[in-house]
Automatic annotation (TrEMBL):
InterPro entries: CBASS_pafABC_assoc_protein, DeoR_HTH, HTH_11, PafC-like, Tscrpt_reg_HTH_DeoR_CS, WCX_dom, WH-like_DNA-bd_sf, WH_DNA-bd_sf
Organism superkingdom: Bacteria
Pfam families: HTH_11, WCX, WYL
The protein's name: Putative DNA-binding transcriptional regulator YafY
GO molecular function, one term: DNA binding
Domain spans labelled HTH deoR-type: 8-63
Entry keywords, A to Z: DNA-binding, Transcription, Transcription regulation
Amino acid sequence: MGGDERGTTERVLTLLGLLQQRQVWTGPELADRLGVTPRTVRRDVERLRTLGYPVHASQGVGGGYQLGPGQDLPPLLLDDEEAIATAVSLLAGAGGAVAGAGDAAVRALTKLDRVLPIRLRSLVRALSGSVESMSGSRTTIDPDVLMTLVRACRDEVEADFDYPSGSEVRRRRVEPYRLVASDRRWYLFSYDLDRDDWRSFRVDRMSEVAARTWRFRPREAPDAATFVQEGVASRVYPHQARFLVQAPAETVRAQIPASAAVVQPRGSEHCEVLSGAGSLDFALMHVLLLGHDFEVLDPPELRSRCRVLADRLLSAGATDSPDPARKES
């Protein structure tokens, strides 16, 4: 590409950037910004129109050049900060903040990755390829920690970090696979090399996070989002319970936060609910208050608790029970 042609291309891209920044520009204003004559501005506007950008021109007071909507969506011109901000926003969409937006957001991230400079492309690829979500919004964490982890997931290299365990803080060495966003927090889904098993870790509890140079061969892994959700909603509690609920999974998911229970469809009219709690009675009452008929699947002893609590509720609601306070008065 010759110098004149390169200069024209750069100038046209600069013109496009200016038109995207403000609603209306006059010809003299654009000429002054670009260091050219108004005639050159008119020629560059025609070049943009040829490329599919609908640049409108109007005369008189308040008139000028304006970039308007067109029949087809032309490419956008983004600077580095805008590109990163766009990637983060798309990441939020991929995280399920907007219903049905996840797949579209991932596709948009993929397209953005193709056209970004190399210095930014790896960052967007890390974001689009290493993050999954259950639903909802997330707490703020150190972006350097997040990026260290997503790059480790992308590059398939081991990572290590300090993590609290009881009253101690221990160094953990893992093969990182995915970052999963829950209702409130980020979790790292990984293979714990010291415990020889799959584990999930809260990112906000990590410190001294580092990516190592040792690469690993990916193992056959369970679904990251499901694994983390089961851990958040069930495995961290001393008691777990499973129920068959006579309602569609979509209906029950709208009633229960993703961090409180795992809801799996069982046909079009039923679903299975896996929940954890400090006591089985609490898990039972939580499902009862959903307002649907249900059946206890596990554990077997929860069925007997159903009968005990049912008798207690019937007794409390009996109309012929004496009122001790009224009798004493």
